[in-house]
């Protein structure tokens, strides 16, 4: 990892993102680009004042980062809406990772469009780390997730290559289904038959996950399987809590046109509810 872009709106939420980005930069030797977007849909005089004040705040933050460790840090102020400005900055800087804070949601707008974080994640083609918790220490447990697809294997390999959880416990969670235990069929099975069936499905899921990891040529990653009792995003959140993960990796799926603006993916549902940090890995460009 050579360059980390971190977005800030100078809130406490963004301060957590800046702190985490600085920690990751010191660990990896990456340079930091601090970015702030000024809303240009207001009178020109106000825009200019905000631009100057924002630049001064960025410069002070960058100096603090430099003094705290041997980290190269540049600053950039852009004009536009929050998410459009971040997308533009990403296109200019081409970071290996974008770090953002957990943004406030604004009720009706978010039902249809989503938070700045969610909208940015949909539109950029590089990994995004959303920081939900104070950066008090290095990560201790990075929990990746996988549906065993080729896309999730690629996302896992790219997440590992970033080195974010290199010194932490790493696991991969796979949520498996047990179709025969659905309400339509469960009445035809005794309780013991249900238990045996679920145990067999769990073993099959674990074998499939181990084969997946072997094929990905990744070592030192613990396989974890969990039966899908509720929705997938609920099971991911429960597993993160049970396994004491402090960062969860999710692969996002490529979408085009109007689909990019719609809510509904597992990633977005986890983003909205997770108390821990979330690393989103997009599909490769053209993939």
Automatic annotation (TrEMBL):
Residues 1-131, 139-280 form the UspA domain. The keyword ATP-binding applies. Keywords: ATP-binding, Nucleotide-binding. It comes from the Bacteria. Gene3D superfamilies: HUPs. The keyword Protease does not apply. One of its GO terms (molecular function) is ATP binding. SUPFAM superfamilies: Adenine nucleotide alpha hydrolases-like (SSF52402). Belongs to the universal stress protein A family. This is Universal stress protein. It comes from Pelagivirga sediminicola. The lineage of its organism: Bacteria, Pseudomonadati, Pseudomonadota, Alphaproteobacteria, Rhodobacterales.
